[in-house]
Amino acid sequence: MNAVLHALADESRRTVLEILRDRPATAGELAEALPIARPGVSRHLRVLREAGLVEVRQDAQRRIYTLRPEALVEVDEWLADYRQLWENRLGALHTEIARGKKARR
Questions:
Q1: Which of 1, 48, 58, 64 registers the highest number of CB atoms within 10 A of its CB?
Q2: Is 45 exposed, middle or buried (0-12, 13-18, 19+ CB in 10 A)?
Q3: How far is Cα 34 from Cα 13, in angstroms, rounded to an integer?
Q4: What per-residue string of b and e applies to 17-33 under the rule 16 or more CB within 10 Å gives b?
Q5: Kind and range of the H or E element at 31?
């Protein structure tokens, strides 16, 4: 999970994942979407591959990258407790707001 969190910490890598969420893309297409040089894009793609967030396949001279959402399952499970905490707190806030509205009537 640490490798996934490290990969997600960078805005450029998150942008790559957002693109791949919608469709597979070549390294060139991904490079066009980022404001960095191609060697930097290659380094970001390597980090994403090593974290298991993307997979690559060769198609003649092109490399096609695809999102591997299953790599995010562990992070999602880890975040579940925090989501529950916030849902409880927001529920309590909603209750207090409703009480305040009743008291004003």
A1: 48
A2: buried
A3: 9
A4: bebbeeebbebeebbee
A5: helix 27-33
Per-residue model confidence as pLDDT tens digits over 32-79: 999 999 999 999 999 999 999 999 999 889 999 999 999 999 999 999
Q: Using one digit for the tens of pLDDT, what is the confidence trace for 3-38?
A: 999 999 999 999 999 999 999 999 999 999 999 999
According to DSSP, the residues that pair with 8 across neighbouring strands are none
Token representation of residue 24: 């597979």
Distance CA(10)–CA(44), nearest Å, equals 9
Distance, CA of 105 to CA of 102 (rounded, Å)? 5
Buried b (16+ CB within 10 A) or exposed e, 47-76: bbeebebbebeeeeeebebebbeebbeeee
